[in-house]
Amino acid sequence: MRSALVGSVLFLLFISCQSKETNQTYATSSQVDFKQVENLVQQVFDSIWSAKKATAISKYQTEDFLLLEHGAVWTNDSINDWCKRAAIRDQGIKRVNTFDFFEQKKEGARVWMAYHNYATFTKDDQVLGKGQWLESIVAVKKDSVWQLELMHSTRVPTTE
User: Fold this and answer.
1) Which residues form the signal peptide (predicted)?
2) Cβ pair 62, 32 in contact under 8 A
3) CA 99, 104, 110, 116 torsion: positive or negative?
């Protein structure tokens, strides 16, 4: 009887240790994924919205990507058209975005994040204006690569 009790205690201790190790591995894996998705958001804004590179769309966004912004629905096609028009009318204005990520969740190969997006617009080192948005994204991982599937963006009035 005593050996059965000791065996049960050892088994429970083993299971407990395995569970903690699994949870720690999942937490570490999630943190890596969150950082990769944060970097993905930065790359999307640097490449598509700042540099106006339509060729980056398929690299960073799924084929069925949607951007919901201020009551408008943007697809990869409409973003591609915007990039082409914006590149033509480019007057040397630089856009730099920074982000304050405040919420993130992961479920399998899908990550959801909410963040504040701050943009500064400059020309010849002179600040022309600033913008701020409250945004959320859904990213999916396919073949070890994260891509944006959905973005929702709401302009926040600035005090400047």
Assistant:
1) 1-19
2) no
3) negative
Residue ranges of alpha helices (H) inside 45-158 are 57-60, 76-88
Distance, in Å, from the CA atom of 130 to the CA atom of 84, rounded to the nearest integer, reads 23
Instruction: Name the residue among 16, 140, 128, 133 with its Cα closest to residue 66.
Output: 140
Mean predicted confidence (pLDDT) in 23-27:
56
Which of 4-8, 120-124, 147-151 comes out lowest in average pLDDT? Answer: 4-8
Sign of the Cα pseudo-torsion (74, 77, 81, 83, in order)? positive
Supply the pLDDT for residue 14. 57
| Domains of the chain (ranges, CATH numbers) | 2-155 (3.10.450.50)
Name the E strands within the chain.
61-69, 72-74, 94-107, 110-123, 126-142, 145-155
Say if pTM beats, i.e. exceeds, 0.90. no
**Cβ atoms of 137 and 150 closer than 8 Å:** yes
